[in-house]
Amino acid sequence: MPISVQLSFRRSLLPYILLLAFACLQSCNSPYTPKRRGYFRIDFPRHEYQTFDRPGYPYSFEYPVYANVLQDSSFFDTIPENPYWINVDFPRFAARIYISYKQIGLNSFDKLTDDAFKMTYKHTYKASSIDQSVIHTPNGVGGIFFHVGGNAATAQQFFLTDTTRHFLRGALYFDTTPNEDSLAIVNNFLQVDLNHLINTFKWKTPGPTHPAAHAPK
Prior knowledge:
Number of strands: 10
Helix content: 25-40%
Distance between the termini: 111 Å
Radius of gyration: 29 Å
Oligomer: single chain
CATH topology of the largest domain: Protein Transport Mog1p, Chain A
Largest sheet: 7 strands, antiparallel
CATH architecture of the largest domain: 3-Layer(aba) Sandwich
Number of domains: 2
CATH class of the largest domain: Alpha Beta
């Protein structure tokens, strides 16, 4: 191609090159708005319930049909002192409610309450907040519910007691690295199930009797 033709061709492209460069500069100087991180969509089942009322257990409650109740043999480094420790498993969400039961009389009520608060507040190094609310259900069951904010291992914990005989503690854990943002939607869904479990919870009368409870002191 002759040099004169090449120069003419380049001159004809110059306005387009300048326009492209200007557009690039404008976009580089415009405010940047990052997209929010996305997570996999979860299709949640309907909230439907069944009754846990196993013979010999000192309590009963309703739990979701998409959960399983299994007897627990250990809670991390704690050995159950009786057979009434259970797990409510949610296989679909890789979640589990650990439920431990202790009999007042074999244990001091003040110590049980103090231990429940200590186990909740040991998460404070990762918690952004810990909110407490008093539980008082239609069945006359009382206790405390803890909502732990931030990337704590468990965001929802509670204890139930009649202050004289029974003391039960529950904590919801996920089999995954704690992430408040990604777990928020599942936590909110399971919060409904936790509320239902608590509001349908009943102590059985007279409940279990341990020989040591009547042993001479």
